[in-house]
Structures are given as structure tokens and as C-alpha cells.
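Dear colleague,

As promised, here are the two records you asked about, laid out in our usual form so they can be pasted straight into your sheet.

NAME FIELD: protein one
SEQUENCE, THEN STRUCTURE:
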Amino acid sequence: MHRRGTYRQKQPDLPRRAAPDDVLDDVFARLGCNRDRALFSMFLSSGARAAEMLGMIVADVHPGDGRIYVATKGLGGVKQACPAALEAFAWLTLYLGELAEEGHRPEPDEPLWWTRRHPLRPLSYTALRAVLRRINEAIGANVTLHDLRHTLGLRLIDDPDVTLVDVQQVLRHRQITTTGRCLRPRTDEVIAKVHEHYTRPKPPPRPLNGCSYDPQDLADVFGQA
């Protein structure tokens, strides 16, 4: 049995964070270029982690198969397939077209994501976080890149045609118990449902039906009338 260190505090088992649809709409509306729209759509439809997404090369994109390939941590650089929405590939096409117009056509083994300012450099995690931070400040939100991954997981869980094992495969969790945390409802959802229960009109009470007894039983107890 594994024991925690003496001074190591137990970490709370917090529910998965997910961004509401209206907040995601606000975020997407404020994205300033096709690169960021492609990234946002890829994150939200693939479940890829930030390091995995930014580590992609051009050859990792397979629009004909509806998938991308990312190097998952802990697998020694072995790349795994992730789904991606048609919308994400559409934005990606526009982004790569703009790069080509600027005279930059990345080779298949070159990074997929580049900065917008010259000289062009591979996009870093710090720069991507700065984009999202500016949008959060503008709309008063606190969406993180990892929230997009959790949002996908919860959306898939809500689909009756998608199994928990399917979600595990998409999110590439080693243990299905990790994926199972997506099943835990968020606190605000539970509170809303309970309030709905309190305010739901109560059905009228059912009338009480009179009890009937067998005449022979009554005669045995009280005697013949």
C-alpha cells in the first residue's frame, strides 16, 4: 500500500472543469486570426493537450481521415491518432493558405503552428497562453486550454451513442477511472437541478380509498350481527 509522505497534504479530488457554451462562443468571437480559430477548433474537437498540439508537424494532419496525430507524453515520442472536426480542418486550410501568401510554406517535417509576426518562429505555449489571457480579460472569463479538453470529454459523455471507453480512447487516459471523473456532475448543475426540484409544482394528493374487510373475518372477531 502506498503511503503519503508525512508533510504531503492530500489533494482534493476536484470535478473536471468545463467551459459553458456561451463563454466558448464569446472566446471564439474574439479570436483575431485563422490560426487561432484553427487552434481553438482543434483543441475543442481533438482533446489534445497544449504540448501535444504545439508539438505537431505538418505531416501530422490527415484531413481525409478526419484525424490528427500527436506525441503523447510517456510513450517515447510515439504518435497517437485524435479526431478533429471538419470545421477545424477548414480553419486550418485558411491559416496555411495565409502562410503561403506570405511566402512561408512549411515542409511536412516542419512545425504546424507559427507566430504571426516576422521573423516567423514556431508558436510557443507562452504566446498561446497570452492570446487566451487577453480574451479572458476582455470578457471576464477564466477559460484555460485544458478546460477545452475537459469540455470535449463532458460533451462526449452526454452523448448516449458514445461509451465511456470511447471517451477514454479520445482523451487517451491510461485508466478508465480517470475518464470516469467526467461522469461526476458539476456543482452548479446539481444546484440548478435541486432548485428545479424545489420549485416544481407538486401533484395533488391522491384520495385515500376506504379499506374493505372480508365479512367472515369481521364475524369471527365481533360475532354474528
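NAME FIELD: protein two
SEQUENCE, THEN STRUCTURE:
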Amino acid sequence: MRDPEMTDKELLELAERVSNRGRWGDDDELGTLNYITPGKRRIAAALVQHGESFSIARDLTGTPDPVTKEAVDHRVLFVRPGPAAAEDYVGIAPHGFTITHLDAVCHSTWNGRLYNGRSVEDVHRHDGLSFGSIHAMRDGIFTRGVLLDVARAKGVEYLEPDSLITVDDLETAEEQCGVRVESGDALFVRMGLRPWEAAHGPQTPEYRAGLGAHCVEWLHERQVAVYGGDCVEFMPYPSDVVRMPLHHIGMPSMGLILLDWPEVEELASTCERHERWEFLLTVAPIRLPGATGAAVNPICVF
């Protein structure tokens, strides 16, 4: 299927139209996190009414994922009797479809360019990113989170893998839930991946429901600070020039921060229970200069 609103030529025009190059200065490494202002943090803190908090991260495991084959390298170095403590080593390759992780703003490139007009040759090095690494986010993310449950809005348990999510779908979910995505928000979209997998088995990453490219401009217009959910872009994306619109337009053009593969089922049920689809979100990435991303443990507080 083709994206009903975007030709390849229009995708190229979109990349220019949503560009945030120079918006926050030529040396900016935070991208859309700049939308999270002190005032936004105060609004987010005021959302805590019940004191209920929970993680939306997936468990890390040394057992390879049955579909992606990804795993964490976890080794116990030694266990000695007596007062000595056990020690271990953990190695994590965070990117992919298994580990809940935060992408550095210069993780993804398109046509040799990265966020804020930097070139791949100048930034991507064997010893790490020289610009736009995860270290730029060392002060953490503290903002209003919003869940748009697209599957719920459509009255289904889950979307099928060939479903392309449109702007109308996002706005219908907004209307149904009585919430509006605003500047500085962390937006999470639910398509029902876990219920689909419970019914059909593990879903291949090559064929998944997700956002169409027209949603990228919507995220830009709404000034979304962070995007996450159980879906990213529609895959495989039907274009010869842009294979992953959120990664290849959103990140290098907008500086869009992506929080890939959170668990959203408990979040959805909690929103349903409280009849409230907004909450406080906190995320604290590791302080590792040059890193392209980091496994994270996002916390939602109601």
C-alpha cells in the first residue's frame, strides 16, 4: 500500500518543511526536548494526584528475543562465600525492537545529514558521536505524558500489521479521550501490539502498523518533545526515498526524540481506570558521552 497523502517528492518537501535546523542555535543537541520548559515541568508535576507510579520499560534479558535475536550480555563475574559481594557485568546494544531505549538525536541519519545540519562524516566516529549523543540528555526528561489509544478509539483490541495510522486516527483518539497533545508533551501511541502477539504469536519487525509520514508534520505542529509507543512508523514504509519517516525525517530534520518500545498495556489500563490520559513522565538516561542511545526505565506517575 502507498501512503495516501505523501508521494516521494512530497516526503522530500516534508523534510525541509519540518526542519528545526538553527531553531535553538547552531550547537543545539537537545532537539525537541527544548519544548519542555520550566513551566511545562510545573504543569507535569501538578498531574500527580494519586501518587501511583509504575515502569513502562521492558525487562532486560540475556535470552535472545525469538524474532529479533537481540539479548543483553549479562555475566556474573564471581560469587565468593563470606562477606564479599557478588559482582556482574552488563553489556547492552539498545537499538532494535526488543529493548526499551532512548535514541540520541544524532542516532539516525538521512542522505548523509544529521540533526542541525551536521554531516555523518563529522559526527559518527568509532569512539562515539562527536555531537548529539545521549550525554546531551543527561539532565533527564520530566514532562507531561499523553497516551493516544488508537486501537481503543477504533473500537478494536489491536490494529492489524497492515494498518497505517493517520492524523485523523490521532485526533479521533484525542477527542475520545478528552485530551489534547500540546507543546512539550511526550506522546505515546498504542496500536495493541501485545494483544496481537498474544493472539497470533511474535510479530515480525518487518511488517508492523505505525504512523504515516503525514503524522510527522502533525508532531511538528503540535511541538511534541518525545514520541514513543508500541508502534513507530508503518513498516515497511512504501517509499523509495524515505524508509522510516520518524527516524529519517523526524530525527535528522526536527531533532525529534524517540523513546522506542515502551510497554503501554499497563499504561492504557491505568488511563482507563482513572479516566485520564495524561500523566507525569520521567526518564533518566545514562551519562555516557558519545553514546548513540541508552536503555532506559521510563516511569509514569498518576
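A couple of things worth noting about protein two: The chain has a mean pLDDT of 94. The domain at 8-57+105-301 is CATH 3.50.30 (Glucose Oxidase; domain 1).

Best,
R.
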